[in-house]
Structures are given as C-alpha cells and as structure tokens.
Hints:
Blueprint: H1 5-26, H2 36-68, H3 72-76, H4 78-103, H5 109-127, H6 131-137, H7 139-167, H8 170-198
Helix pairs in contact: 1-2, 1-4, 2-4, 2-8, 4-5, 5-7, 6-7, 7-8
Residues 41, 44-45, 48-49, 92, 96, 99, 107, 111-112, 115-116, 118-119, 152, 155-156, 159-160, 163, 169, 171-172 line the site of protoporphyrin IX containing FE.
Amino acid sequence: MQLSTKTQGLSIVGLTLVVIAIVYAGAPSASNPETLSDHIGYMLRVTARLSFGALLLAYVARPLVQLVGWGRPLLIQRRYIGLAAAASLTVHFGYVAAFLITSGEPLDWVTGVFGGAAFALMWAMALTSTDPARRRLGAGWKRLHITGIHYVWLIFMQTFFGVAVESGSRWAEVMATLGLVALCIRLAAWLSQRFKRTA
Ligand code: HEM
C-alpha cells in the first residue's frame, strides 16, 4: 500500500513527537523536586538538538537535489520536516518557560528579544506552511521562509558555538559542525545556480 505524501509527512511529525515522549520517559524524573532541574536541562538540550537536526534536513533538501540530484524524498517532505522542527522547538519553548519559572533566573533582554524572535519566526513559518497561505502571501511567503530559516539557523549556531566553547560539549561541537556543513551545501548550490544562469 502506497501512503500519500501528506500521510507520510504527518508520520514524520508524529514520529518526532514519539521520540520526544520516549526521551521524556528516559529523562531524569520531572516529579521529583531533586531531579526537576536536571529534567528541564536534559529536555532543553534534547529538544534543541532534535529541532536543529530536522531544520538542517529541510535546509539542505533543495540544495542537495540541485547539486547532486539526490535527496528528492527530503525535498518532497520538506514542509513536514520543517513542521517537525517547529514542534520540537515548541517543546523547547515550554521547557524554557519551566526553566525560567523554576530556576528564578532572570531572562536577559538580548536572549528574550533574539530568542523570542526565533520562536516567532518558526511559528510564523509553521502556520504559513500550507498551499493556501503560500498563494495568499505571494512573494512575501518566500521572503518570510528564507529569512526565517536563516535566522533560526543563526540562533541555533550561536547557541551551539557558545555551549561548545563554554562547556566543551561534544554534542554542541557536532551540531555546530553539521550546521556549517549545511551552510556550505547551500552556498555551493547557490553559486552553481548563479554560474548556470550567467554561463
Ligand atoms: C527565550 C529564549 C530561550 C531561553 C531562555 C533558552 C534557554 C535554554 C537553556 C536554559 C538551555 C539549556 C542549557 C543547558 O542546561 O545546557 C538551552 C539550550 C539550548 N537552546 Fe535554548 N533557550 C531559548 C531559546 C532558544 C531558541 C529560540 C533556540 C534556537 C532557535 C535555542 C536553542 C538552544 C540550543 C541549541 C541549546 C543547547 C543544546 C545543547 O546543549 O546541545 N534556544 N536553552
């Protein structure tokens, strides 16, 4: 039986939520006050990594097809992969709220403004990821999605770089490296398209 593109796409989002539920079950307990902060930190890290992983797949889907001709399944499912990234970042947002409430740490304005803008852009992209919204927004749709994906990529990268430098986290180093590789793939595809046009 062949599943429709939409059903396959929704399963990607569903699978992401199942992974988050499994991670939740394996995380330090949220109901024990002694491990609550470990739970929140753990879930913050996992939801950020999961969201960035999905974002990068959406980020390189078209460039990969343009450059080497493969990655078509990724391109077909790019909308749902993006929705999976947004779903995981939304869980991150929930844990950010839990972190701020339980730790009593103040939210500095730079993180609030620039991090808040990343959440807002991600949600705006998710809410406009339908065909009718695309038609209604016209050229604005492309502007929103190109600006949004690069901005969210940037916020992820500066956070992973910061964590890698401050704590030497292997995970953060790997994620930042993957982010740079994805940027190189996009740049290479962009340059090859430009040369094709001017050749
Ligand atoms: C108001 C905004 C935000 C606050 C207060 C916040 C807070 C946090 C905290 C407390 C951690 C856990 C640090 C640790 O225990 O190691 C974390 C991790 C992280 N957050 Fe956020 N976050 C915010 C928004 C965002 C946004 C918008 C993004 C991405 C677009 C993001 C990406 C990350 C990344 C990449 C990590 C590190 C994951 C790792 O260590 O592997 N955060 N955040």
